[in-house]
Each structure stands twice: as C-alpha cells, then as structure tokens.
C-alpha cells in the first residue's frame, strides 16, 4: 500500500425548511426550485479518503461494511471530478460512518457527500473554499451543497447555462437558537430513494408543475422569517413547503407515500401542542421521520410529548450547527 494523500472530514445533515424536490431538465444536477435549510449539530458523517496508487479501483466502506455497487459509483463520480481537477490518477479508499440512520430520510446523503467532497479535495491538495466544496458536492447530491456551510443556508434554483452553483449562507448557526427534535418512526432505509422519487414525480405527477411555480414564494417566506427570527411565520411557511412537496409526490404514478402511520401521529401531536400554546412546527423530508422545531424553553416538553406518540421509536435532538470541516483522523 502506498498512500499518496489522505484526509478526514466531518459534515452534518441539513433539514430543508423550504424544500428542494425535482431537478432541471438541462443537466448538471441542478435543482428545479430554490431551497433554504438549517445545518444540524448533533448528527454527523465522518469520512476518510486515502488515495492509494496500489488500488485498481475505488473502494467504499459504509458503517464498517463494503458498499454496494450503486453507492460506490456515485462516490467514484465525485472522486473522478477531484482527480480531473488535481491531475491525480490514483484510486481511493473511502470509509464513511454516520451516527444517525442512513438512507432513511434524515439527509444522510447531504452530509455524506459534503464530507466526501471536503476530504477528497483536501487529500488531493485542491482548494477547499466552502463555495468550491459546496459546488463539488452539489454535482452528486443537490442537498449536499447546503451542508458545506453551517447555520441557515440557501440554494437557488438552477438556470439554463448554469454549471457552477454553490449554496450561500443566510445566517450563522448562532443567529437563532432553535431546537430540532427528530421523531424516528422506522428503522432501515426507505423503499424509494430521493433521486428515484424525484424523477417519478417530475415525470408523472400532475401537481409537479404547480409545486415548481409555488416553491419560490415559499422560500422567500422562509428566508424572511429566518432573518426576522419570526417563529410563527417560519412554522407556517415550512409546514406549507413540506406538505406541498409531499402532495406532488403522492400524486405521482404510482403515488409516493413516504409516511407511516406514526408519521401522521406525530403531525397530529404537533398540532395538539400548538393548540395548547406550545411553540412547535413540523417538516418532513423524503422519508417517514418528522423533524419538529421548537424553542429552547419548550424543548423538554416537546421531546417528552413526541416520545410518547404511538409508533415513535426514539427521538434525536439537534441545534443549528457548523459546516463541513477537516478533522484529525485520530480524534
């Protein structure tokens, strides 16, 4: 073995308050709608990339196990871009671990490809500006563009002629001390991946065009609420974005229903909490889990209420956190 460059990076998943769903038809992995998210401390992906001239092909290990061909191809696609930019030809050994459920609707691909982009670029000796890492990650996973940055982050929709499209910071992590309680409602990966689900929605849903038309105004409402730290306005816009995204997916053929019965139970509980005057709102990505936002003073009460909902397996807690960063692999 002859390692020629090695680095380890950590990145965190992000939760979209204004949802991204669907891609532009003109290539370059460009989103069809603008989105705005918050990067989460408390959940993390740790990825090590080692370029090794003794390897005949790229190797990927996820959670201590060799990865399947599909994920490995996606990783190799990003590594090929790094090799092209750096002039390197060596294959790489990639090891990646999440401390939260993978491929389950908790934005593991966002943190995974942000961490991979930073670790690979560092190992190859390339520039590691957040903008460059964001664009590199976005070319493989659109949502990963936002995990390159910390705090509240926006990604505009793609336009004809776009090739470079990084995310942009909106506000730092300490701008607003929100609390995020994740109600985990299922184990294991979801049946239909986000990329597959998006394509099906784009191709078959009669509601998709309405979603693309409506989403920009929702993103504007979310952005204004974040900047003003207006919890009620943010909750109203974020819930609308999530429900309208899922409505477009449910209307696909065949319909995409990422929810479980427990998902609906949690939505009902959040509305009951609000009726009692407790600040809380929900959002749901392409998966069965529900992310519930609240304020620090109500965190314990909201967590207790969600943990008692039938079908909730456990809860995870998070706060606005940092962007992708390089770490000492020994730590």
Automatic annotation (TrEMBL):
<feature type="domain" description="Mvd1 C-terminal">
    <location>
        <begin position="180"/>
        <end position="308"/>
    </location>
</feature>
<keyword id="KW-0547">Nucleotide-binding</keyword>
<dbReference type="InterPro" id="IPR005935">
    <property type="entry name" value="Mev_decarb"/>
</dbReference>
<dbReference type="GO" id="GO:0005524">
    <property type="term" value="F:ATP binding"/>
</dbReference>
<dbReference type="InterPro" id="IPR041431">
    <property type="entry name" value="Mvd1_C"/>
</dbReference>
<keyword id="KW-0456">Lyase</keyword>
<keyword id="KW-0443">Lipid metabolism</keyword>
<dbReference type="Pfam" id="PF22700">
    <property type="entry name" value="MVD-like_N"/>
</dbReference>
<dbReference type="GO" id="GO:0005829">
    <property type="term" value="C:cytosol"/>
</dbReference>
<comment type="similarity">
    <text>Belongs to the diphosphomevalonate decarboxylase family.</text>
</comment>
<keyword id="KW-0067">ATP-binding</keyword>
<dbReference type="InterPro" id="IPR020568">
    <property type="entry name" value="Ribosomal_Su5_D2-typ_SF"/>
</dbReference>
<dbReference type="GO" id="GO:0019287">
    <property type="term" value="P:isopentenyl diphosphate biosynthetic process, mevalonate pathway"/>
</dbReference>
<feature type="domain" description="Diphosphomevalonate decarboxylase-like N-terminal">
    <location>
        <begin position="11"/>
        <end position="161"/>
    </location>
</feature>
<dbReference type="InterPro" id="IPR029765">
    <property type="entry name" value="Mev_diP_decarb"/>
</dbReference>
<dbReference type="InterPro" id="IPR053859">
    <property type="entry name" value="MVD-like_N"/>
</dbReference>
<dbReference type="InterPro" id="IPR014721">
    <property type="entry name" value="Ribsml_uS5_D2-typ_fold_subgr"/>
</dbReference>
<dbReference type="Pfam" id="PF18376">
    <property type="entry name" value="MDD_C"/>
</dbReference>
<protein>
    <recommendedName>
        <fullName>diphosphomevalonate decarboxylase</fullName>
        <ecNumber>4.1.1.33</ecNumber>
    </recommendedName>
</protein>
<dbReference type="InterPro" id="IPR036554">
    <property type="entry name" value="GHMP_kinase_C_sf"/>
</dbReference>
<dbReference type="GO" id="GO:0004163">
    <property type="term" value="F:diphosphomevalonate decarboxylase activity"/>
</dbReference>
<keyword id="KW-0444">Lipid biosynthesis</keyword>
């Amino acid at each position: 073995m002859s390692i020629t460059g090695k680095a380890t990076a950590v990145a965190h998943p992000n939760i979209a308050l204004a949802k991204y769903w669907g891609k532009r038809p003109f290539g370059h992995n460009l989103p069809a709608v603008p989105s705005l998210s918050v990067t989460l401390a408390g959940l993390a992906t740790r990825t090590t990339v080692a370029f090794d001239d003794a390897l005949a092909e790229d190797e990927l290990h996820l959670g201590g196990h060799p990865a399947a061909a599909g994920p490995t191809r996606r990783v190799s696609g990003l590594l090929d871009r790094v090799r092209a930019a750096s002039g390197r030809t060596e294959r790489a050994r990639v090891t990646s671990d999440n401390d939260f459920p993978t491929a389950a609707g908790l934005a593991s691909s966002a943190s995974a490809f942000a961490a991979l982009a930073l670790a690979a670029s560092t190992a190859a000796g390339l520039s590691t500006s957040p903008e460059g890492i964001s664009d590199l990650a976005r070319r493989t996973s659109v949502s990963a563009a936002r995990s390159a940055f910390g705090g509240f982050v926006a990604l505009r929709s793609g336009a004809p002629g776009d090739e470079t499209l990084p995310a942009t910071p909106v506000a730092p992590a300490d701008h607003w001390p929100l609390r995020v309680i994740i109600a985990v409602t299922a184990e294991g990966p979801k049946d239909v991946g986000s990329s597959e689900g998006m394509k099906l929605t784009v191709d078959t849903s009669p509601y998709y065009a309405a979603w693309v038309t409506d989403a920009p105004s929702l993103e504007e409402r979310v952005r204004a609420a974040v900047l003003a730290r207006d919890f009620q306005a943010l909750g109203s816009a974020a819930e609308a974005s999530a429900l309208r995204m899922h409505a477009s997916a449910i209307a696909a053929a065949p319909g995409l229903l990422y929810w479980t019965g427990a998902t609906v139970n949690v939505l009902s509980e959040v509305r009951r909490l609000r009726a009692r005057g407790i600040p809380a709102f929900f959002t749901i990505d392409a998966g069965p889990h529900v992310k519930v936002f609240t304020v620090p003073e109500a965190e314990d009460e909201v967590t207790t209420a969600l943990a008692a909902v039938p079908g909730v397996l456990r809860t995870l807690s998070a706060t606005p956190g940092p962007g992708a960063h390089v770490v000492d692999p020994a730590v």
